[in-house]
Specification:
This protein has 107 residues and is mainly α. The chain is built from four helices and no strands. The two termini are 21 Å apart. Residues 1-17 form the signal peptide.
């Protein structure tokens, strides 16, 4: 089930990324960071209400959040930042989808 979820997420990200391909790397980074900020806010709420409470998941989310913060706020190359964000978005989206499934909610 988890693999299917990850494959679906990757396909969805690929479908969403194709129109972004026409944007500059800087603009792609801005759109990506905005989307991840929204996702991180939703995930934070699930952590605060106790829906996400698995220590390993919390550790992964914490690490992903640090990389997202660094990639979105530092002056590194935009393409490098986008590459760093790719794996982190999967971690954050997977946590969000699992929490939404558990609570029966869909944002």
């Amino acid at each position: 089930m988890r693999r299917l979820l990850v494959v679906a997420l990757l396909l969805g990200l690929g479908a969403c990324a194709s129109p972004l391909g026409t944007l500059s790397a800087r603009d792609q980074l801005l759109v990506t960071c905005d989307g991840l900020a929204t996702t991180m806010g939703i995930v934070k709420n699930y952590i605060l209400d106790g829906t996400i409470d698995n220590p390993a998941t919390l550790h992964d989310i914490r690490n992903a959040s640090v990389i997202v913060e660094e990639s979105c706020t530092s002056n590194i190359d935009h393409t490098t930042a986008l590459s760093r964000l790719a794996g982190q978005s999967v971690i954050l989206l997977e946590a969000r989808i699992m929490a939404e499934t558990e609570t029966g909610e869909r944002s």
